[in-house]
Design goal:
- The chain is an alpha/beta fold.
- Helix 3 crosses helix 6.
- Helix content is 31%, strand content 25%.
- It has 3 domains: 147 residues, 3-Layer(bba) Sandwich (FAD/NAD(P)-binding domain), CATH 3.50.50; 110 residues, FAD/NAD(P)-binding domain, CATH 3.50.50.60; 110 residues, FAD/NAD-linked reductase, C-terminal dimerisation domain (Enolase-like, domain 1, 2-Layer Sandwich), CATH 3.30.390.30.
- The longest helix is centred in the first third of the chain and has 19 residues.
C-alpha cells in the first residue's frame, strides 16, 4: 500500500476519486484523550460517530507524553533508590544504566496501555475510525482522502505540539522534543534543556538520575505556575542531585560544532555558554490547528487554539466544539477527559456543566512532587487581598515521612474567609494526596470535612487533615475554649 507524507496508508483506489459522502451524528477529529473519550461516550449512547486520526491512536499522552515520561521517571527512581539505599542500611553501588532496557520498559508501558485506545476497541464500540488527515470543507462537513462526513456536531480534539522558540541557530541543530527524547539512540552524556516547566524539570531529574549531566535554562523562574515556595523546594532537590539550573536566563543563540551543541544563555550576570551532547526543547506547547481548513468551517481560532466559550462550543460555528489542549483552556490529559464529559453532558443530556465547573489539579512529577488544585496563595491574594488565610502542615512532622526519610515539603491550604479556594502540596506522593482536597473543593465541602474523618496511621495523606485542623486550633484550644471547658467540668 502507498503511504502519504504522514506515513498513513492511503485508501486503495482513492487517488483521483471524489470522497464518499455520508452523514453522522458526531464527527471527532483527533484520537487523543479528549477525542477518544468524546467518541466513546457518544457511541455508547447509540449515536453514529466518525473518528478521524492521521497519526497514532492515543495521541500525545500515550505515545510521547504522560505515559512514556512516567515510565522513564519510574526507571530513574530505581536508579536514585540504589544511590540512596546506604542511608537505610542497605549497601549497593553506583547504578549502571542500560539505556536500551530503559527504552524497552517505556515501549512495554505504551504497548500495555495502547489496546485501550486502539482502533479495534473503538470499532468494537461502534465508532467508524478513519486513519486519514481530515479538514473542513464547509461549516458542518469534514473530509479526508476517502470520505466526506456531514454532522450536526463536530469535535476538534487535535491536541498540541511542542512550541519551538525563535532562538537564532536553533533550527540548524538536531534538537529533541517530547516526541523524540524517549527514543534517542544513546543516553545523553550532557543534556541541555530549554525550559524549566513541568516537562523540562521532570526530564532533567530523570536523565540526571540515569547518569546524564543536565543543564536547565529557564528565562523565568522554574515551575512558574506552581506555588513559588514549593517550586523552590523542588528545584533545590534537583540541584542537590546535580542538575544545573540557570533560571532567569534567556537562550540567545544556539549552534553546533565538533559534534556538540552549544547555547548562549543571557542573565543578569552576563552571558554563559553551555555545551552538551543533546538539546531538548521544552519551552511550552502550542495547539494544533494547521491543516484543518478552519476558515472553510467558519471556525474562529487564535494562538491559544479554537475560540470557544466556557461551554466548549465554538463562538463562530454552532456545529463545532473543541476539547483538550486545542480548546485553549489548559494542557492536561485529565482536563481533556473532563472536557469530553462536559461535551457529552451538554450536547446529549442538555446539562449545564462547563469547562471551569470544577477546580483544576496539576502535578509535576519530580521528586518531590509538586501538586496544585484551585488557586495558589499568590493568585488568591491578588484576587481576594486580606480575605485570604493560609494553613499548613509540614512533612517533617508526619510520622510516615519520617520513617521513610522523605520529609521535604508541606501541605498548604488556601482559604477565603474559611472556605477552600486552593491547595498546594510539595512532597513525596503529593499528586495522590492533593486529590483529597480536590474532592472536597469539587463537592463544595466545608473545611471541617477534611478534619472529620479517621486517617489511617501512618499515612502521608494525614498532612491534609493536620493542615485543616491547624486552622481551627485557636477555636478548639484557645482561651475561650479553655474557659468553656473549665465551666463544663463543674457539671457532673
Amino acid at each position: 500500500m502507498k503511504e502519504d507524507i504522514a506515513g498513513i496508508p492511503a485508501v486503495p483506489g482513492s487517488a483521483g476519486q471524489p470522497p464518499e459522502k455520508r452523514k453522522a451524528d458526531l464527527v471527532v477529529i483527533g484520537a487523543g484523550s479528549g477525542g477518544l473519550s468524546a467518541a466513546a461516550g457518544a457511541a455508547m449512547l447509540g449515536l453514529d460517530v466518525v473518528l478521524f486520526e492521521k497519526g497514532e491512536m492515543g495521541g500525545d499522552c500515550l505515545n510521547s507524553g504522560c505515559v512514556p515520561s512516567k515510565a522513564l521517571l519510574s526507571a530513574a527512581k530505581y536508579a536514585a533508590a540504589a544511590r540512596e539505599s546506604s542511608a537505610y542500611g542497605v549497601m549497593s553501588g553506583e547504578p549502571v544504566t542500560d539505556w536500551e532496557a530503559v527504552k524497552a520498559h517505556i515501549r512495554k508501558t505504551i504497548d500495555t496501555i495502547a489496546p485501550v485506545d486502539s482502533r479495534e476497541r473503538f470499532e468494537g464500540l461502534g465508532v467508524t475510525v478513519i486513519r486519514e488527515h481530515a479538514h473542513f470543507t464547509n461549516p458542518n462537513t469534514v473530509a479526508s482522502a476517502s470520505v466526506a462526513v456531514s454532522a450536526k456536531r463536530i469535535v476538534i480534539a487535535t491536541g498540541s505540539r511542542a512550541a519551538i522558540p525563535p532562538v537564532p541557530g536553533l533550527a540548524d541543530v538536531n534538537y529533541l522534543t517530547n516526541e523524540t527524547i524517549f527514543t534517542v539512540p544513546s543516553l545523553p552524556s550532557h543534556l541541555i534543556i530549554l525550559g524549566g516547566g513541568p516537562i523540562g524539570m521532570e526530564m532533567a531529574q530523570a536523565f540526571r538520575r540515569l547518569g546524564s549531566e543536565v543543564t536547565v535554562i529557564e528565562m523565568d523562574r522554574v515551575l512558574a505556575r506552581a506555588d513559588q515556595a514549593h517550586a523552590e523546594i523542588a528545584s533545590e532537590a534537583l540541584r542537590k542531585e546535580g542538575v544545573s539550573i540557570l533560571d532567569r536566563h534567556r537562550a540567545v543563540k544556539v549552534w553546533k560544532d565538533a559534534g556538540k551543541v552549544s547555547v548562549d544563555a543571557e542573565g543578569e550576570d552576563g552571558t554563559k555558554t553551555i555545551s552538551g551532547t543533546h538539546l531538548l526543547v521544552a519551552t511550552g506547547r502550542k495547539p494544533v490547528t494547521d491543516g484543518l481548513a478552519l476558515e472553510a468551517g467558519d471556525v474562529d481560532f487564535d494562538q491559544h487554539g479554537i475560540r470557544v466559550s466556557d461551554k466548549l462550543r465554538s463562538i463562530s460555528n454552532k456545529h463545532v466544539w473543541a476539547v483538550g489542549d486545542v480548546a485553549g483552556k489548559g494542557q492536561f490529559t485529565h482536563l481533556a477527559g473532563w472536557h469530553a464529559s462536559v461535551l457529552v453532558r451538554r450536547a446529549f443530556f442538555k446539562q449545564g456543566s462547563t469547562s471551569s465547573s470544577l477546580p483544576l489539579p496539576a502535578v509535576t512529577y519530580t521528586a518531590p512532587e509538586v501538586a496544585q488544585v484551585g488557586l495558589t496563595e499568590h493568585e488568591a491574594r491578588e484576587r481576594f487581598g486580606d480575605k485570604v488565610q493560609v494553613t499548613r502542615f509540614a512533612f517533617d512532622e508526619n510520622d510516615r515521612a519520617i520513617a521513610e526519610g522523605k520529609t521535604e515539603g508541606e501541605c498548604k491550604l488556601i482559604l477565603k474567609k474559611g472556605k477552600l479556594v486552593g491547595a498546594s502540596i510539595v512532597g513525596e506522593g503529593a499528586g495522590d494526596i492533593i486529590q483529597l482536597v480536590g474532592y472536597a473543593m469539587s463537592n463544595k465541602m466545608k473545611l471541617t470535612s477534611l478534619t472529620n474523618f479517621i486517617s489511617p496511621y501512618p499515612t502521608r495523606t494525614e498532612v491534609v487533615k493536620r493542615a485543616a485542623s491547624a486552622h481551627f486550633s485557636d477555636a478548639v484550644f484557645g482561651k475561650p475554649a479553655r474557659l468553656l471547658v473549665s465551666l463544663l467540668q463543674r457539671i457532673l
